Each structure stands twice: as C-alpha cells, then as structure tokens.
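As promised in the previous annual report, we have extended the structural survey to additional targets. Below is the entry for Sulfotransferase family protein.
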Amino acid sequence: MDELNNHPRVICHSEIVRPRPLDAVAAAFEKFGKDYPEKANTIDRVLPYKLFAEEDDDTAISPDSFGAYWQYIESKAIPAPQALGFKVLEAHVKNTAFPDLCRESDVAIIHLVRRNVFRKVISWMVAKQVGVYNSRGNYEPEAGRRLTPDPADVVKRVRRMKTGNDSSEAEVASSGARSITVYYEDWLADRDAFFARVCGFLGVDAVTPDQTTLIRMVPEPMEELLGNYPAVADAMRAAGFGEYLD
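The corresponding structure token record, generated without further manual editing, is:
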C-alpha cells in the first residue's frame, strides 16, 4: 500500500475503513447531512468505520459514495490518477457488503497474504510486547524484543492464522470481484517482478515505485529472537508446520 502510493499515477490511501475521530465525523455530518462524504473537503479523513455497512444501517454509505470519492480525487490530483486505492483490513469488512460493493462498482481487490504465518505470529507478538507496530526507519530494537513464548500457544495461533489465510483466499476468489492475490515474500524477493504483476493487473503504467521508508520490524532469524526456539520448533514440527521454520 505504501509503495503503491509512490507510483506516479496511483493514489493509495492508508485505512479509510477504520474508526475516525467522532468529532470530525459529527462536524461533517452536521454540516452536510447524510451525503457528507460527497461534499466534505477532508473526505479521506472523515469516512467512518462502517464504509461498507449494510444498506439498512443508518451509518452506511451507499456504493454511489465511492464513485463520488473517486470524482473528488480525480478533481484534485495532478496528474490525474490511473488508479485509486486504499487499505482494508479483513477484520474491518468481515460480514459486510464489501464484496458486493467491489463487484458492483468495479473496485478491484489486491489481496496481500503472508505465506509464512509463523513469522507473522511472532512479529505480532514482538510488536505487542514492545508497543511498536511499524516505523519509518528510526526504530531501535529494544532489549525487550526477545521472547520465550509458550510453544502450544504459538502453534494455536499459527493454526488459526493459516486457517484464516486459507479462508480469506477462498472468499476473495469466490467473491465475483476482480481480484489478484499477491504475497509478502514475493515482494521481499523481487520488487520489480512483484510490481510488474500488480501494475499489469491494475492496467497502470509499469513502474516499480520508490521503496517504502517503513522498515521490516522483525528481520532476524527466529532462533535469534526466541529464547526457547528449539522447543517452539519441535512443537511446530509435531503439529505439521515445520515448513514455516527458518
């Protein structure tokens, strides 16, 4: 998402489907009424969490509002964008009309997946422990990064994460929306090939955008990070997850 926004003809916002300050939403609603997304100058800052809520929800915004949002961006951006996107966390659109909106409004889905769910779980544990989830190059690893997690808990979380990955890939594939699944590991391995595929899917100029200033928060091997790595590795192998070990 961050690097797509560096593409000269693509605008890619961070999470617009997330809670917004209630005072900003309330002020926009007070001024413009229910169609405030079509009129608020700070539209990308006041869209509420339930952007894709069901139609009978008073806080819902109709699919027409996404078209209005696109028109707003087109009128402001120079040069005009070839694509407009935003980040959506799966938890934000679970059990909503999101797939229907995408299908009806020609909104394409780029589904980013991390194959190695073990590293994803440990990265989350590290972030939660140190209280830093992302950083733009000024993050200093802290002594508190080293973990000694319960092996059974790690296996449970890996299993849940893998089930979630498999389920979400199947849901995207069956949604009827135009979609592509890409992988975090492929981005790390070859950015040129990764973005050639993404740009081809979007139908935009084939450009490898400038690299993000966000850094990898957990780049080190797991055996350096986990104080009880042998026990965790044994539990992972016993559960059939040995493929995810470094």
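The longest strand covers residues 10-15. The chain has a mean pLDDT of 76. These points will be discussed at the next consortium meeting with the crystallography subgroup.
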